[in-house]
Amino acid sequence: MTKKVVILGSTGSIGTQTLDVIKHNQDIEVVGLTANSRIDLLEEQIKQFRPKIVCVMHEDKARVLKDRLDSQSIDVEVVCGVKGLSTVATIEEVDIVVTAVVGMIGLIPTIEAIKVGKTIALANKETLVTAGELVMHLAKEKNVSILPVDSEHSAIFQCLQGNTHQSIDKLILTASGGPFRTFSKDELKKVTVEQALKHPNWVMGSKITIDSATLMNKGLEVIEAKHLFDVDPSQIDVVVHKESIIHSMVAYQDGSTIAQLGMPDMRHPIAYALYYPERRVSEYIKKLDLVAIGSLSFEAPRKDDFPCLQLAYDALEIGGTMTAVLNAANEEVVASFLNKQISFMQIPEIIHTVMDKHICINRPSLEQILECDRWAREYSREQVAKCY
């Protein structure tokens, strides 16, 4: 039976790779696509996959795209904004919603999709980082499956198959260590944007690439893992594994550890989520050759030099709205770093300042989460302005 899918964020890294998986398998119908502003690429995707509806976040660009499609007699509904995202995410005939947008913008459409019973292939970290307790409770209430697309969470999900939750000892997230794994503290003070955007193993969007360089990406994954797999934060460890061959592991109480290995290719976890529980033949993905790789290495993360990881653990331990504040502050300061307004080492400094200022709300409503997000962004921008 043909599955029907929408992809929120189809022009980004995960979105384009999801469409590549669909192209190679040809038994999934793309019903909807969304983009932030890259309408040239979205137009190409529309011509190839023929969705019924698309969303562009920017209203003016949505109009430009609609005019282009009309001039070519391509009949596609074009909507815009957050409301448009939710419209695409809740189309009645759709089976799976791939949430591949970057940032807090992914939260509302994901919640709306869960409310109407859609399976979620989750690649948007911020959904669980900012509102994990609320989202997972809603998913349970609506009997909705949330299938992880992040390589690390997909690996854990795969390692858990056939085992009981009670038998888990530790979840072990692997981290590449980013481009500055061997840098000294003095070298980190001189890091440039250009250096930070050169990830050694993965090709990703600019925001997630910077998060990988600061280890915040791993911190956000720790928060996600707590909600996805319902474990205590003390049961989640991080180990630096520079080769990115082991994507994560689960240690069990009997002393066994199960790992999921593969070449660093996001199309594997994407395909696993799209076709779960089936494993598809994927000839387009390079197979693992351990002899060619030769050896695998592991080391502890340097939390003192990369404090973003500890900040994420701290936010998770505090709970409530603190994880939303961590996320919002990080989004703002990473954007400021990319704009060369602050230095690399000022990223965790400002996040820490914002967290210290925040008065945490326990068991927050969605409205309270959104308000704390707004406050944290504003306060972060104020702190960035002091650095000029």
UniProtKB/TrEMBL annotation:
Gene: dxr
Sorted UniProt keywords: Isoprene biosynthesis, Magnesium, Manganese, Metal-binding, NADP, Oxidoreductase
Organism superkingdom: Bacteria
EC identifiers of the protein: 1.1.1.267
Top-level class of the enzyme under EC nomenclature: oxidoreductase
Stretches assigned to the 1-deoxy-D-xylulose 5-phosphate reductoisomerase N-terminal domain: 5-132
The protein's annotated pathway: Isoprenoid biosynthesis; isopentenyl diphosphate biosynthesis via DXP pathway; isopentenyl diphosphate from 1-deoxy-D-xylulose 5-phosphate: step 1/6
Names of required cofactors: Mg(2+); Mn(2+)
Name of the featured protein: 1-deoxy-D-xylulose 5-phosphate reductoisomerase
Family assignment from sequence similarity: Belongs to the DXR family.
Residues the entry annotates as binding Mn(2+): 150, 152, 221
Residue stretches making up the 1-deoxy-D-xylulose 5-phosphate reductoisomerase C-terminal domain: 146-229
Binding-site positions, 1-deoxy-D-xylulose 5-phosphate: 125, 151-152, 176, 199, 212, 217-218, 221
Binding site for NADPH: 11-14, 124, 126, 205
Function text: Catalyzes the NADPH-dependent rearrangement and reduction of 1-deoxy-D-xylulose-5-phosphate (DXP) to 2-C-methyl-D-erythritol 4-phosphate (MEP).
DXP reductoisomerase C-terminal domain boundaries: 261-379
Catalytic activity: 2-C-methyl-D-erythritol 4-phosphate + NADP(+) = 1-deoxy-D-xylulose 5-phosphate + NADPH + H(+)
GO molecular function, one term: manganese ion binding
Transmembrane segments: none
GO biological process assignments: isopentenyl diphosphate biosynthetic process, methylerythritol 4-phosphate pathway involved in terpenoid biosynthetic process
